[in-house]
Specification:
CATH superfamily of the largest domain: ATPase, nucleotide binding domain
CATH class of the largest domain: Alpha Beta
Number of strands: 10
Helix content: 40-55%
Strand order of the largest sheet: 3-2-1-4-5
Strand content: 15-25%
Keywords: Kinase, Transferase
CATH topology of the largest domain: Nucleotidyltransferase, domain 5
InterPro entries: ATPase_BadF (IPR002731), ATPase_NBD (IPR043129), Euk-type_GlcNAc_Kinase (IPR052519)
Pfam family, one: BcrAD_BadFG
Radius of gyration: 20 Å
GO molecular function: kinase activity
Length: 339
């Protein structure tokens, strides 16, 4: 038996083709699978493209796929679900597709079948806690209403502080303004308005600047360090809020997954310190990256098929890393920002 699992994020879609033993045979990556940021038609096209790449690299025919699981934001219970699924697979195969909530599926990539707290700092920010049958979300309100601590938030704050420096409203010295000009390919900082006030906004492109802020913080740039501390504090608040509302004084594991963890260690180090300073009995587990989220969908698929006893998290992580090395250089550069 062969399966396909997909994680459709705001900036990238990851699809994997795997066997009933959980062995990954092929991976495909494409653009945004989030219908809110890409639109239904484009999101469906990107998901379809990632699936075809995964099937091709697994050297199997799509007709051999027993079931599909697709983890998406905001689609599980929406009337767009059927429209999106129909754009991904042939009509006669739609009954084989299970649509998952991306947060619930992603949670399993850190604590499969376990209680715990997971933060997910990608382009945005959302966090989840699970205790028995209770599953709770904190944050994840989008780039206007919330997402504090996520990549877009960090980039937005860096741009705000950059314009304060440009105006002479800040007493902080930083290399961030120079990196802003280089990243956005502008000669004068006032030109930034033409880069950020677009319709629709280039959320993913702006958010990617957060990795530069993180690296500058590691080099002890004062402003970058302050911004990473601010963002880590926001992420830590998600964890402590879930701890206090769900677990009380019980010990609980916490971890995360998301692209921000790949930029540098500083973000996770600060989050962990803040949380443990407040709750020293909590148990941290090292975070994974955004492209590991699809592991949660693999676990849920195998569980549904009563095959989860064969699931081994460490083996799945290693398998994902091996597949990352096998995908095309273009996919790595365009969607994972690996150069």
């Amino acid at each position: 038996m062969m399966f396909i699992s997909v994680d459709g994020g705001a900036t990238k879609t990851v699809a994997v083709c795997y066997s009933e033993e959980g062995i990954i045979h092929g991976m495909g990556i494409s653009g945004s699978g989030n219908y809110r940021t890409a639109g239904v038609e484009k999101a469906g096209k990107n998901i379809r493209e990632a699936i075809l790449r995964a099937v091709h690299r697994a050297d199997v025919d799509e007709s051999e796929i027993t079931k599909f699981s697709i983890a998406l934001a905001g689609v599980k219970d929406s009337n767009l679900k059927n429209e999106l699924v129909s754009s991904i697979v042939d009509k006669e195969r739609t009954s084989r597709v299970r649509v998952l909530n991306d947060g619930e599926a992603g949670f399993e990539c850190r604590f499969p079948g376990m209680d715990g707290i997971v933060i997910c700092p990608g382009t945005g920010m959302v966090s989840y806690g699970r205790k028995g049958n209770i599953f709770k979300r904190v944050s994840g309100w989008g780039w206007i209403l919330g997402d504090e601590g996520g990549a877009f938030y960090i980039a937005k704050r860096a741009l705000q502080e950059t314009m304060k420096i440009y105006d002479g409203r800040s007493g902080i010295k930083s290399d961030i303004p120079d990196y802003v000009k280089d990243y956005f390919q502008i000669n004068d900082l006032k030109e930034i308005v033409n880069k950020v006030y677009t319709n629709p906004p280039e959320i993913g492109s702006i958010a990617s600047f957060a990795s530069i802020v993180s690296k500058l913080a590691e080099k002890e740039d004062v402003l970058a360090t302050l911004l990473m501390e601010e963002s880590a504090a926001e992420a830590a608040r998600c964890i402590t809020s879930l701890r206090e509302s769900m677990f009380g004084v019980e010990k609980v594991h916490f971890s995360g997954y998301g692209g921000l963890f790949r930029a540098s260690n500083i973000y996770w180090d600060k989050i962990r310190k803040i949380v443990l300073d407040q709750h020293p009995d909590m148990i941290p587990s090292e975070p994974l990256y955004g492209y590991h989220a699809v592991i949660g969908s693999i676990y849920l698929m195998l569980k549904e098929e009563n095959m989860d006893l064969k699931f081994d998290l460490d083996s799945e992580v290693k398998s994902i890393e091996e597949q990352i090395r096998r995908i095309s250089e273009d996919e790595r550069e365009r969607y994972l920002l690996m150069h």
